[in-house]
Amino acid sequence: MAITIITNAVIINEGKTFNGSVAIEQDRFIYIGETMPEYTDALIIDAKGKYLIPGVIDGQVHFRDPGVTHKADMESESKAAVAGGVTSYIDMPNSRPNVLNHEVWQAKNALAATKSLANYDFYMGLNNDNVDALLDTDTTGYSCLSDDGLYFAGPGNLLADSEETLDKIFSKSKNIIAIHAEIEGIIHENEQKFKAEYGEDVPVKFHPIIRSEEACVKATERAIRLATKHNARLHVLHLTTAKEAAMFHNDIPLEEKRITTEASVHHLWFSDSDYEEKGTLIKWNPAIKTEQDRLGLIAAINDDRIDIITTDHAPHTLEEKQNTYFKAMSGGPFVQHSLVAMIELHLQGYLTLEKIVEKMCHNPALLYGFKDRGYIRPGYKADFTLVDMDSPWTVSKDNILYKCGWSPVEGQTFKAQVKQTYVNGHKVFDNGEFDTSKKGEQLELLPWEERIYVKNA
After folding, report:
1. Phi, psi for residue 47 in degrees, rounded to 5
2. How far apart are CA 143 and CA 170, in angstroms?
3. pLDDT tens digit string along 223-254?
4. In the sheet that 86-91 helps form, which strands lie side by side, from edge to edge?
């Protein structure tokens, strides 16, 4: 296969920004540098005026496939992902059936191999029903174990709710345990207070008071305390408060951290002042909170207390969202718009482009132990995207690719636009057109002993 050279690009990689070129042979990078390499019969693509960054690895999505495909599926949502510069994702276990054993996990990987345009990995679900059986097996073949989303199947499935269960898990598992950090008892008590006053139609502006700062802070405090006790590997999903962000370390590099966390794009983009306009469209669990919390999360990204940026992409139909408070589903789509939203925050002065690439591309690969991903390096898989930083466009129903057909940022004009996306060296997205002739790959994990949380235990 001929070598492809992308030249005259502004490359952002490993904390540096420079004008240069990359070369690709088959599915891997073979060169990155400031000069254009000389190869015989190479295909040369001039990327003048465009920024070239590694493909985004979204560490938390709900693509709803299998079993809940009236909302989304792997084909539709991976198409939206690559259009947004996302080349890889990790999908949560609350599809149907829930991913609670190896057979279901394998079946989900087999399904993705036939449908997904982006590379994929899947969390193994962990709840009170399977915790003993799972912890008695070898879990090193999974990137992560998580309870997220499983609470929708019934109460009592949030690990953070049970000190005894968390203590057992942290004492036995050496894998990453990723938790949804809220205390259900506090939330239930708040729900009853507001239901007594408003009935079923509670104003959505009270969502961050019902799913409160207290519920999040107490859950995160408990998880950190127990993980520290056992020197366990804890990852706290979708952080929402400045108080929680202050609990995490920034005095050691990611490679040495045993306890890590993330922020999701909607918690960085919206605040509680947006409920009046957006209503239940921005009802997420955990809830979008105050402007002070939003700015606190951004500050924690900049000072490295927060390690990665995800979307928690969780599509529902408009009918499911546009309902009274208790009936409106929690979650919303964001994977198509995550990178351009973060670049918009950069243009507003909140974050550097280098920091965005670190948190969305480099660190997810490092944290979860994905082999040859997340960086532009010779020998690594050629996952990358080309972005025009001065190509304004407005999100509308005509260009939304989610199967659910809506977006919480509909009507928003972004200055940056993803122009091309390559997955494993294959140009899958090009200025609105898709080449679906090749599918993404299952993300390969590093051998157990080479993962950072094992080497530095």
Report:
1. -105, 30
2. 16
3. 999 999 999 999 999 999 999 999 999 999 99
4. 56-61, 86-91, 119-122
Nearest of 210, 319, 203, 315 to residue 266 by alpha carbon: 315
Q: Which residues pair with 5 in a beta bridge?
A: 23, 44
Task: State how far the Cα of 78 lies from the Cα of 83, in Å rounded to an integer.
Answer: 8
- In this structure, what token pair is assigned to residue 283? 């009802």
Residue ranges of domains in the chain: 56-367
Name the burial class of residue 397, with classes exposed (0-12), middle (13-18) and buried (19+) by CB atoms within 10 angstroms of its CB: exposed
CB contact set of 335 (below 8 Å; sequence gap of 6+): 58, 61, 77, 80, 81, 84, 86, 89, 311, 313
Kind and range of the H or E run holding 445: none
Beta-sheet strands, E only, within 248-372: 259-264, 308-310
Q: Which amino acid is at 373?
A: R
CATH of region 56-367, choose from 3.40.50.300, 3.40.50.9100, 3.20.20.140, 3.40.50.970: 3.20.20.140
Q: What is the rounded CA–CA span in Å between residue 308 and residue 414? A: 22
Please tell me the distance from the alpha carbon of residue 239 to that of residue 216, in angstroms, as a whole number: 8
User: To which H or E segment does residue 52 belong?
Assistant: strand 51-54
Q: Is 218 exposed, middle or buried, given 0-12, 13-18 or 19+ CB atoms closer than 10 A? A: middle
The size of the chain, in residues, is 457
DSSP letters spanning 76-144: HHHHHHHHTTEEEEEE-S-SSS---SHHHHHHHHHHHHHH-SSEEEEPEE--TTTHHHHHTS--TTSS-
> How far apart (Å, rounded) are the C-alpha atoms in residues 86 and 63?
14
Instruction: Render pLDDT for 258-298 as a digit per residue (tens, 0 to 9).
Output: 999 999 999 999 999 999 999 999 999 999 999 999 999 99
